Amino acid sequence: MAFPGFRREADISILKIVVLAAVGMIVLTVATFAFLVWSTWKIDTVSVARQSELARHVISRFRHQIAHDQESATVWDDAVTNVRAYASPESMDWINANLGEWMHTYFGHDAAYVITAEGKPVYVFSDGMRQGAGAYNSIAATAAPMLGELRAALIRGDPIAPDEGISSPGVSDFRLLNGRPAVVSLKPIISDSGEIEQVAGEEFIHIAVRYLDGTFLRELETKYDFGAMHFSRTDEERAQKASLPLTTTGGDVIGYLVWEPYRPGLAFLQSITPALVAILLCLVGAVGVFIGMLYRRAMANREQEARIRYLASHDSLTGLLNRASFETRLDAALSSAAGTPQQIAVLYLDLDRFKPINDTLGHPVGDTVIREVAERICRLAPEGAPVCRVGGDEFNVLVPYAQVEEIEVLCRAIVRSICQPIDIHGQNVFVGISIGVALSPVHGTERTELTRKADVALYSAKASGRGCYSIFGPHMDALVRERAEIERDLRDALSDYSQFEVLYQPKYFAATGAIGSVEALVRWHHPTRGLISPAYFIPIAEEAGLIRELGRFVLKEACRAAAAWPIANVAVNISAVQLRDEGFAMEVMAVLAATGLAPQKLEIEVTETAWMDSFDSCVANIRALRAAGICIALDDFGTGFSTFGRLHETEVDHIKIDKMFVEGLGKNRGDEAIIQAIVELARAKGLKTTAEGVETEEQNAFLTQIGCDELQGFLFAKPMRRADVADLLSKTGWKRKAFVGGLGRSADDGKKEIGG
């Protein structure tokens, strides 16, 4: 029961408090505004200083990068041979393709010159095409002292700092060319093998030029958010804008890079000033509108109650229904449909490849992905269809339908939509989605039964390769039970390892035909099911958390066996799950110590797809293993989504060419070109190559001819037991034969392997 007199007295007291509070808030607001003005000035000062330091670092790194770019072609026997024969049309074409056009198209260099020991230009590339020797005159005066400095360094034999990441001496500096700022970099054209005799100081010199205006500045604006960046010969704009002097190694300033600095403090102050003014005005008029305040307070209470009710039934991140509300809606829909022709589909959706996004990019990015996925699902779902976020990266959708085809069309549309890139702050993020579907009344009329069967169908979609949908079928229950049995049997088998056997498939040096190394391959001899394919039980081991134990067993067996063999190394396949384990590198070193195998005799193989998906989370282990002398190999090379483009970022020593390319030799000229490109790319990066799946002499001949280092396949040897390997190695010569008997099949038959 309410008491009006008491309520009025309370309102008067509140009014007094409001008046005093309003006066105090006015004073506080003025003081706060003054403090904010001072704070924004300090923040902007620090921000401009940081931007200048960033610009200085970027320009310095860019200058050194040009020299590194040059060495992709200047440290090369072919380059030395062709520049010496520059008078030959064929050699000049080679020079144009590799020292001019390649540098322009791949690295963005604006001009390139090749200079003889006498200072004569024999090749000029500028304005996107080859030019006459006379075009060199425009930079000759600038290049002359730099040429002298480089040749003097070559004659002296100046050492190269080991931490600079370069292979040859060089000279680079900022210069003003025809009124344009530029980086001018000089590199000698030298032999990479050391087999070509060259007189110090008489080498041909490659000059690269990259202008620091135009497209270069636009790239800096885009990548680092510098505003309206341009070049100025003077520093007249320094008072209003930020600037960076371009200083030569001699201390001369050739000009300034000037840009509109980002001032976060000022931007923040400008954004909140209207709010501060509004607050002040509201406080001044608060007394006069006290009745309105009481009314708004009542309304606010109502809104808060409504929001509480909303939050109790919706997911806070996406605004979708939560699990409890969805179950209520599903129960109501099933009850309404009972005894009628109405049909209902329950969709269970789960994102693919979402965990690596959280692990590598962070949970805020993961939350953004979840919100975008929720929006895409809602756009495609029929109007009024309840959409629910079950939790994590899982969703439910309730869809009335007349024909099953309607559900199939919807599922395909959702899969296509989710596979499209998600733009987060200019970075494309990719996920996929798998969908399980249960239909009512076909698959049941109870909520728990329908959601269970939709979950089983989702499991089937995941097992089918992800990025697809599955509608529940009776056989799926059997598959789930079978997989559970395999997991249970696998767990039991790991109690004593007696059901597992490690086989070894030799790899042969292509040049000599001798055995160079072996690859360890695990086999599971199930007591009732017989030999189970690694492609089947390895994913189960990974999902069940058993892969570490299985991998540890195989690693120990392989190292113990290889310690007694006169081979270069033993290769052991490793799961990405193991590599993500923080203690994996220490575990490997412990196994090596226990078995007596030298680190240099162990090679760790990781599939390319797993590498690309998990590199950021396992890079510490990779670096620790390589630092210990262990070789890292990239298996199934060429099948990943970004192999060629990201090879320069990849910390590996060895790549294995996937068998699908080898199978196409003699049938598909494209495969021949791909393999040759892989071998040449690996050679340029200093990586060893192995071709797997070699089964014919024609494949053998082609791979040997193009310079593949190692060959592996049924043409030479099948996987064999430890004793058979020892017997093979004891034979004189260890030369390869057309066929060496063994047991089982290897990675050459397309089955997934694990060696640790």
Rg: 35 Å
Query: Could you say which structural class the secondary elements and strand pairing correspond to?
Result: alpha/beta
Main sheet strand line-up: 17-18-20-21-22-23-24-25
Let me know the number of strands: 25
Distance between the termini: 75 Å
| Beta strand % | 15-25%
Mean pLDDT: 85
- CATH-wise, what's the superfamily of the domain at 485-503 and 511-749? EAL domain
CATH class of the domain at 485-503 and 511-749: Alpha Beta
Give the biggest beta sheet: 8 strands, mixed, barrel
Shape, per Cα inertia axes? flat
Give the number of helices.
23
Q: Segments where pLDDT lies below 50 for 5+ residues?
A: 1-8, 737-752
User: At the third CATH level, what is the topology name of the domain at 485-503 and 511-749?
Assistant: TIM Barrel
Verbal overview:
Helix 1 (4-74) packs antiparallel against helix 6 and helix 12 packs across helix 13 (474-493). The chain contains 23 helices and 25 strands. With 756 residues, the protein is α/β, with parallel strands linked by helices. A hairpin with a 2-residue loop joins strand 13 (422-424) and strand 14 (427-429). Residues 1-8 and 737-752 have low confidence and may be disordered. Among the domains are: 4-51 and 266-311, no CATH class; 314-472, Alpha-Beta Plaits (2-Layer Sandwich), CATH 3.30.70.270; 485-503 and 511-749, TIM Barrel. The protein has an eight-stranded mixed beta barrel, surrounded by five helices. Pfam families: CHASE4, EAL, GGDEF. The chain crosses the membrane at residues 12-38, 275-295. It comes from Ciceribacter naphthalenivorans.
